[in-house]
Amino acid sequence: MIKVKWNKEIYEVKASNAVELKQELEKKTGVPVARQKLMARGAWVGILKDTTSLAKLKADQQVTLMGTAEVLVEKEQPKFVEDMAEEEVAKSGAVLPAGLQNLGNTCYMNSTVQCLRAVPELRQSLEEYNGAGSSLTGALHHTYNRLDASTKPIMPSDLILTLRATFPQFAEKSRNGQGFAQQDAEELLATLFAELSMRLTQNNNNTVDTLFGIDLQENLSCAETQDEPPVIRQDKARKLVCNIQGGHGASTKIDHLHEGIKIGLSGTLEKRSDILGRNAIWNKTQTIVKLPPYLCIQFMRFFWKPTPNNDDHQGVKCKIMRPVSFPETFDVFDYCQQDLQKELKFNRDAYGAKLDQLPTSEKDQDGDTEMSGQDDTELAKAIALSMTNDTNAVLPPDFTQHGLPAQFLGEYEIFAVVTHKGRSADGGHYMGWVRQDKDKWLVFDDDIVTESSTEFVVNNLKGGGDEHMAYLAFYRAKAGR
Length: 481
What we know:
Elements: E1 2-6, E2 9-13, H1 18-29, E3 37-39, E4 62-66, H2 86-92, H3 107-116, H4 120-127, H5 136-148, H6 157-166, H7 185-199, E5 201-202, E6 205-206, H8 207-212, E7 214-222, E8 231-237, E9 240-242, H9 257-264, E10 266-273, E11 278-290, E12 294-299, E13 302-305, E14 316-319, E15 329-331, H10 338-357, H11 374-386, E16 411-421, E17 429-435, E18 440-445, E19 448-453, H12 454-460, E20 469-477
Parallel strand pairs: 1-4, 9-12
Antiparallel strand pairs: 1-2, 3-4, 5-6, 7-8, 7-11, 10-11, 12-20, 13-14, 15-16, 16-17, 16-20, 17-18, 18-19
Helix pairs in contact: 3-7, 5-6, 10-11
């Protein structure tokens, strides 16, 4: 028997393979197979796929199931929403999930927390956390559990109090002295990532870098002399930055995400040149060496503007309103280092070979199709490998070791967005947008939760006016098409 934990319930399921396990769980929990996310540390990487063997599952090892039930599961007799306890209703998925009350300019926290809630592997790691409840990690875990069990907005008192006590910068008062100041959602995210990376660890790895960590190769070349040897060094990041340019008189205008990312991965810095015997200007370019299962992108909308003519000379934090579009599916191939590109190209060629073997009638209008299974994928890879005479041809890549789909093509799909509304960086309002399925989204405006669509998110959150615009975008790796 396989023990499966869903919310606070433990189910025992008899199954010999992944497909059978999912089907039995749908009968017991009401969570549709398509929504099921099954995880078991050490037994498989990431979320259980239909083709994954259960052989590595140890006796009495607990599997974690995440997903919302589509229908109420009948046990002894039918139960209606009116007859259910609040916690039962919340778990059933019969109503919209609970929001978080604003406790005085806490929308920056509420929106970010709701977006991270949509990362099942992070939720699993928090469930396994045994540290002190007074820590920020413990407070976040407790907040998520309360949200899971409630149909009404909750007050995240312990989370905000712990945040302000642990990191006093978030306890800053507003300029008029009345209440707390608005904070930057990205600074909150970075703080959470730093804290969680220290608390959620196992086998010299931490959950944050496993899920969001990006390995980069940085190439430096001296701009003032060609005699200086280039410098290559490694770097790590937990997000990509989309630089935004294009004001009046600007030579470079950024209109789309891919353009801003390209700018964000290049630049200049001052560094000593041994040949010149002094500091010099160096050109910097970065390429991605290892991709994560989840990709966080910051739209660099806020910047610090000096105010030398003001009495206090403190400067002012400004916001860039320029519209920058972002896609539903984001292809990162062009930003990858050459070796990683070769691995991605192998899967891409395999996918192309698979398409070439299909009759035209089996392709859709865009010339696209779905891989029908692991066997077809392996066949496609074999075809791609057989089509080259290169004895040094790259071997089939193993992206699963990094928590990525086996047929990963370098594509990510958007699943959450933190937006900011207003012209002031020190004011305005944040909201969280979280994807539920292909076209359905939930909008978390603090305690108010409404529905939206993929079309609205992609077409209306790019900025350019006084409405909400994307500030943080969260993408997740897509399996090969």
